[in-house]
Predict the structure of CxC2-like cysteine cluster KDZ transposase-associated domain-containing protein.
Amino acid sequence: DLPLLEWKVFADEYLSEMIRNEGRGDGDIEACYRCNEGVPLYRCMDCFAEDLVCDKCCRELHMDRPLDNVEKWNGAFFEKIRLRELGIFVQLGHRALESCPHPRFVDGFTVIHTNGIHNVVLAYCDCPGRRAAGEWRQQLLRRRWFPATHVDPRTAATYQVLNMFHILTLQGKVTTYDFYAGLEKLSNNAGLGDTKDRYKSFARMMREWRHLKMAKRSGRGNDSERTLSETKTGEMGISCIACPRPGVNLPEDWQNAPKNDRYLYWLFLAIDACFRLKRRLVSSEKRDPDLDVGGSYFTEDEPFRNFLLTVTDQREMSTCTGLAALDHANTKYSRGYATTGVGVGVCARHEFIQKNGAVDLQKGERYANMDYAYASLLRHHDPALSKVTSYDIACQWSKNVISRLNALPSLVRTDLAEQITRFVVPKLHIGGHEIFCQLEYSLNWLWGAGRTDGEGIERPWAHMGPIATSTRDMGPGARHGTMNDHFGHWNWVKLTRLGTLLRKRMKSAIEEHRVQKEELKAFTEGRGEVTATWLKAITDWEEDKERPAGERLGCMNPYEMPKGGMSESETRLKLTELEAKRAEEGAFSLHVVGPSAFMTQLLELQELQRQLKQDVAARSFETSAQKTILVQRRTKIMRLLGRLRAIQQIYMPAAIRLLSNRESDNSTAEHAEEVPIIFPFDLPLSQRCEPGCHSDLASIEEEMRNAQLRSSLLNLRTHLHMKTRLLTYRTSNVKAQGMVVKSQSVLKRNQRQIDLDTAKYQDAWQAMKKLRGKDNVTWRKLKGRDVRRMDAGEDKAVGVERKRLGKKKAEALREEAKKGAANDGNKLKRARQAVGEGRRHVSWIWMEGGTGEVVDQKVLEDIVQVEWCKSYARTARWGEEIRLLSAEMDRCLTTLAFNTKEWEGRTDYTGPLAAGKDAAHTEGVRAYALSQADTYRRIAEGFRAVWRVLHEEKGSFEGAEDDEGEKVASEDKEDEMDGASEDEEEEEAEVDGWDDMAD
């Protein structure tokens, strides 16, 4: 840090000036500079000018600044005094500096302010007929002092300190205790004073402040018809301005939209639970009531509790193994806790917490709780809207959800049978499901899904995680109030940043759609009419999915790969299922992350390192922007590695010792992609068991490495076969320079996958060799010369042979060939002939299962078909994303205009509650309404300015469909959440999985 290093030279000077400020400085120390009479002994630490003044002038300067910190020179140093010692008191009920003929003095009144805690003398206005001044509490409020009690208050907090703490706790998650303790230390950091403890009063005032601010911002203060107690369900919550809302931001004929446009009006929802947000068995609803009962994000308490009393002990049995939510549904983690977590619903594309979409959990993530949350939030959405609901256990939860929602209390009951609803699993989580689930519940293959990832539900948990410690010991009312407040803040920040977010997503979508479209075109050309058959298979399958479950024709899923042994995901599920069975039998787990999940995370981290190593070797980070991405990727790896080390300490203490020894021997800093992870195979054989390593880890790694070998070999075959097709097409059809460049780009991306598949296989083979011993590894070692296409002979054979011969010898041999000399023994000719069909040897990678039989050509064609279908889906999803984003931009502006008009209609306060209100209140109502209307208007103007640049750069968003009428939209199985986590969403999800691994 160059500025810091430069500053170090001046550190002594800075320190000298700080010490100098402890004295009286350059001021006149003989006479007060204001009156030239008194002795200048006083200075104010809060005024800009710290000139010394006399007691009289100090009093005059601070009659309207009663909360400033003043110091007095005692002849040797400055000591803090209270302004009350100078005769200053706070007069209420009158204008500034105006005296009251009938004051009611209160000595020892405590005021909490941004610069500390003060003890002042207060004077209420007690004039006869003091109606204008108001009650004691009103006199305080009109000076922006919030009273701790409504009857004869003796403590107050200024609006400034309440607002400061409110912002700090929302943004920085500062606790009430820490903030108040900081104020105490501002007043007296040595513990020598007599400051009264007003922590409980401050906490209570803060709860009331939060509630009132939420009510004010939702328009409740401008409602002259209903009191706060008559607030409607969810009325104080903030709605997403980009999601479809009939009557607000949709055209009147939206239900009659053409079939290909209907997805533009889909509502994308996501639900999930967080088990970090627990609450201990402290207090009760009676002693600690909720000020906001169902008025914002949590559902109504009493009806929800009554419903849970009717629910017997559910057993959510999973047929899709590895679902942690179901594993925890009815078991453990509940002793000593009144609440074991929170379930919540969000809009999946913009991550707004849904009104009345939050519920408490009592025994894990039970269907009953999540059903209630889902039905509760649906109350605020038009049943006519088609819905896509993402849930990490949607494959199980959706099976009988219609009947379960029909059985809910009438308050939230809804009939999903009459609504079009699709259920999906988030893109990151779906990797832990069975193959059937990955095919049936994937957003990748859902027409109309665009680039929705379903993982947005995890990001609010990262925002809420830091408050888990403070809310754990709160009463039920305080906890709900705090969480509602943070939910509201999350939604407001999302609203104000939607302009930037949608712009970034649109720019990414336009560019990626162009790339995917070009790749699909290159993939399609030269394949004749067969692609029309493949496209029809996609269309038939998508149409079949639209039919009711009982009327489906059972069309083949075009994205299903030919079966070839147990995949990596199936292996993980098998191991997780085994762990779950052991847990049921009473086996003790060392960590909430089980051994198989831990090993999965190690392998995922290794994959990130492998990808980065290859990109660095390929010189992919030359520009400033690329170097920034490199830093971000390395930072991400180190952050994930740090999390793993804590778990590794528990499961593999020998690995930590090995790392420690290695670090002491190696002082050179390593890049993130080069930092050793340490797997069980890295440990000496004697340390792969207790106590150096968990007894199951080595066998778990062995099974997972076996699956890696199988999957990487399959993927390697696929990408080599694709390379053959691409080269054939380029040779026959690509002539123009532009086409050559495009084809080279496609080949380069395919080659990257070949290299990654190769590296993954080689890493897995090396691990298996150490785990089993070289003679016991059933998989063959993959060498560079083995990585060649099935129909091209040894791609590298000629090059290797030519290098061995040397340039001169090769030239001599060519001359010999030209002269017609006998070439039977010519090595160059043999090298050339090696690529001919008669002498070609098929690499062992094309042998099925080590039997020596060549992989069937039909299997390869099936693989190509699936890859083409996936390429088509990627192109389609990206195109859909462009149109969805364009529709969302329009809806944002329409909703903001609606909100502006709504606030402009709140300027009059003439209803029943207006009785007894004065002109000042009426003016405040109007001013606040117009201020809010102006805020929404300016937000809309900001969005237009941001998007105007995008329009100028990229042109119209129309034309996202190609000439053949392809459905627009996309997803890449290698890039599950690309573009989903934006810069403004700094805090990545840190829930039970590795949610940021999908970036």
Remarks:
- Residues 476-524 form the longest helix (49 residues).
- Residues 360 and 861 are 51 Å apart (CA to CA).
- The chain has a mean pLDDT of 83.
